[in-house]
Amino acid sequence: MSRKIDRNRRATVTSFDMRPQVSKDDYDRERTRWATQLEEFNSKLIASETANSEMIINRAELNKRIIDLEKNQKPMMEANRKLSDRNKHLQQELKKLEQKLRHSQDDFFTLRDTYEREMKELQVLKEKRVGPEMHEELLRYRNQCLESSKCITALRNTLIDKRKQYEVLVQKFKQFQKLFKKLQANEEDRFSTMGSECSGASTMSLNTITEDFEQDQFNIQTLSRENAELQKALNELLLNAADLNEENFLRDQTIEQQQLLLEANQDMMSQMAQLKSTVMQQLDQIKALDQQVEDLTQQLAVQIDKNDTLEFQYLEIEQELKNQTAILAQCSTFEEERDALRTEIIKLRFENGELRQNHAREIASLKECNATQSVSNFDDERKTLVQKIESLEKQNEAQQVTIQNHEKQIQELNTKAADQIKELTDEVQALTKELSKIRFSYQGSEANLKKEKKMTDALNEQLQKLYENTNSDSVKKDAEIAQLRQKIVEQETKFNEIAEEKNKVSELLKNITKEYEEFRDMQRPEIKTELERRFEETRYRLNCALEKIHDYELLIEAAKKAETDGKLSEHLERELIEVKEFNAHLERQFQSQSQIIEALKGKLLKHRNFCDMLAKLTDMDDINNLVEQLEIYVNENTYDEARVAANIVYLINVMKKKMFYSPLQISTAHHQIRPYSSVDSSGEWQSNSSEGIISPDEQDEEWASASKTASR
């Protein structure tokens, strides 16, 4: 809504309350404006709440979807990770295999070279076998070479001495020539200076000089002859030395060749000796193993004999135990017989007592009857019975003695049997332990024998295989190398194809990115709000203007090159200047609009925070706490929402007091409305006030002054 505000109108002040008076129309306008703003505010709050709830629901749904996607993607991620680990492992194994292949190739080539070299050397050595006669000839040639070298050194020393002597003689000859020249030059002076008195002496001195000169001349001639002879001898020696050098060189070559052959033979002999030593060592090891086998067999035989003896002893002990059990059975029968005898003795004693009682009764009856005959008969019977009883008692005593003896024997036998059983159990345990040890050692010895036999068999097989598989390994390695080379060639071709495809794909990617950038530049964004629409329109116009400027510049350059007239260039320059001015104007508009958008964004954020605070306060039941929170908010903040909060506090206080205020008493100090202005796409300023178009700088100044007065 656009409305006009009379800025020149001054508020009247009453004499009582010092409050500005407002007209009814202004009050109605303000009321309707505030009502519409409250309705808009409520509608915005409801819309924001609905949007917030929808956003929360969408957020929950998105979180659920994200969780589901993560759950679904976890196995894929694990599988991908496993595949990546497997690929890494395979790459490492491939690298290791390639390294092994390279090492094996190098080893194969080195082995092949060494094998070929050794085969050639063997062939050469076979062709040039050296016997003892050749060895003697070599020694003889060596001695001759040594003697000839000694002769050559002696001749060289003599030549050096002769040359030294010749040089000394040449120096002396030169000295004599100098002296002779001096003597010839000074002869005239000497003859003129000498007198007649010393003429004889002078002639004598001249004669001595001539004699010395003749001797020197003779010596020089002899020396020259010797020198010529020495030169001839030297030339002959040099010629002979050349021949000798050739002969010596050939001899040295033959000697060196023979030495090489001898060294090769010695190496072969040493290798053969080493091989023989290894063979002998292996034979010694085999013999030692055979000896160990024999020792183990002997030990086994001894252990078997011991086992037989132990089994025989065990059988004897079992027989003794059986005998002892039989003795114990006899003892038990003796005890049974003893018990039977005891029972019989008890019965006889009982019968004897009964007989005595009967006898006493009969005696009493006989006394009463005075029958002498019956008494005599009875006495006879009694005597016979007494004799029987005495004989039975004797038998009983003898049986008791025998029983005691038997019991003693049984006790002794029991003690002996227990001792023997203990000894036998101990011996049996020891024998079982020894048997277990012997069996364990026997098993270990058998295992060792088997292992050693297997080792010997394996060594023999390895020796045979080493001789047999050298050629097969070389053939296999050659085939493997050929296959690997083919694989390498195939991989190189594949790699080249992949590189070509990669280059093609990169070129396609570049073209697609270029097309996408061009399409994105050409594509206009979505229109969301009015400000963003204006912003995008200005940016689009700016880009179009820049493109036009670029086109005009190109046209100007083409016009400058093509046309000689300056009219078109001037016209184009004017258009270019106009376009540049228009571009500058658009840039200023763009900057101002971007600033306005940033300010509006800040205000929207503040308004959103204020709305969130109000939404929280609506849930509060206590009005006092609500008022305190609003007052804290008013004290902490200074922007427009703080003023709205202050007005809400004021209204709440009014509602608390339950007082009715007239509309004229409402302070408008807290309700100052800041006019806003914006730039339309046509370039004109729009305002929410009814005063017409005002520049934003003037509005800012008026707003600042109004806010200062309100704060005061």
TrEMBL record:
<feature type="compositionally biased region" description="Polar residues">
    <location>
        <begin position="678"/>
        <end position="692"/>
    </location>
</feature>
<feature type="coiled-coil region">
    <location>
        <begin position="272"/>
        <end position="306"/>
    </location>
</feature>
<feature type="region of interest" description="Disordered">
    <location>
        <begin position="678"/>
        <end position="712"/>
    </location>
</feature>
<keyword id="KW-0175">Coiled coil</keyword>
<feature type="coiled-coil region">
    <location>
        <begin position="52"/>
        <end position="107"/>
    </location>
</feature>
<feature type="coiled-coil region">
    <location>
        <begin position="220"/>
        <end position="247"/>
    </location>
</feature>
<feature type="coiled-coil region">
    <location>
        <begin position="375"/>
        <end position="589"/>
    </location>
</feature>
<protein>
    <submittedName>
        <fullName>Uncharacterized protein</fullName>
    </submittedName>
</protein>
